[in-house]
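Peroxin-3 structure dump, as promised
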Amino acid sequence: MIAATRRWFRRNRTNFVIGAGVVGAGYLAGQYVLAKVSEARQRMSDERIARENLRRRFEQNQEDCTFTVLAILPTATENIIQELPVEQTLNELQKQKAERLARSVGASEAASDFPSAPTSVADDDGKSLKSFQSESYVHASQVADKSGGDGDSSSLASQPRPKKSKAQLWNEMKITSITRAFTLIYTLSLLTLLTRIQLNLLGRRNYLASVVSLASPPSQSSRISLENRDDDNFENAYGNDFETNRKYLSFSWWLLHRGCKDIMAKVTAAVEEVFGSLNPREDITLERLSELTLEVRKRVEGSTEEDRRTNKWLTYLLPPADQEDYVLTESGMASPSTTPTPTPSLRRLLDETSDLIDSPSFTHVLTHLLDAAFSLLIDTKMATTAFKIPPVSASTARVVEITGANEAKAKVANTLAVFCRQAHVIGSGEQNEYLAAMENVRELEAFAAVVYSSNFEFEAPEAGEVNAMGSGVGAETAETVETAESTRPGTADTAVGGDVAGGEASLVGAESGFESAWGKALAKEDGKDV
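structure tokens r here:
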């Protein structure tokens, strides 16, 4: 029996070997597949976590942009209001009215019975002045002037002005009221875009610095070193040092103190040309006011698509190269006794910011922001306040169409009162409706997302050295590019390219990688429900 069993095993040993081999190979193959599945699951989990982390960083960055704009906007508002003191002109008109009443009915009667003065001596602009008193309010910078001119003699509002006629004062108030509101809209729009560019560039660099820090090999020694290695620090290589960031953000000083005044000069010329012949006493329709506003915008931004695309806003947002030291000094980033020189990291940030501002995409987004702000001012605030048109909703749209609300008329002086009041709302640093309207523009989010996720592969000047150390930062960065580009609906599918200069991509021209990514971002936005 045993001998027969042995003979059977010898006859079938080849089959046993083959079977064992098949079973072993199957087992190994199964283990390999299970390992790959586990690895794929782990990678998907890591990518999901990284994607959510990047999304959270991006969303927090946009909230920081909003708070930053609200914090620094009042600085520009103060400068513009001081240059265009509408309230001072209103005070002079009121004084002239009081003087005329005093001459007509006697000084004693004017002092004791001023509210009941005869209608025969009341001025035609009495209702207009009352509308300014009720519908507008005096800014803090004008309090000193209204209290008797005891304020700082160096301020523009407290300086004595030559005597002007009533017609001259009304014309001056017309121009300054409209100019102030329009200038603040342009300033708010440009400040919003500049802040988005600055904080998203820094946010992108901070994110990459954290990736480098995590991917770098741990120190071989636990000893504390007192040697200064800042020049070799990976975070500084990415421009993540605190001092560079502070200096870079301080360049918004130029828009707040110089650029807004340059914009004001351009807007003033356009307003004088368009609204100059308008009589404050005459009636105007909302449609006519919208047309005049559009004419002003054409003169400031450009009348055609080509004009708007070639219109450069860089001079309003950033100083020329020979004024950069002056800005750093005035903003408190350098002492007057020294001559600050931008570091290479700061230089790269400023150059990339300039390229973004000069890109056609910047003008495209700016136009949409201005559309939203002017629509809120004219179609909503002006319509409901000056023209007494009820807010248009789904239930009232047909009623407005039938009653011809677009043909409703109002005195030009009444619209000036609304312009005066809305200027303070536009420049407010708290609960700003106009900033909220701009942030609802989808192109702004797409623009911020493209800025945040572009140029990942060009950010690290020391990437070659890091890879040579075996840390795998190159692979991590490449994965980060894919992750970043899929975090927001407005991001691109591929990383942007460009000419590499000093470790940075140059974003110049309509055919640059940024413009390609921007086009894909808009294509994605058009394909989703808004």
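The chain has two domains: 7-44, 48-105+124-138+163-215+234-453.
lmk if u need the other ones
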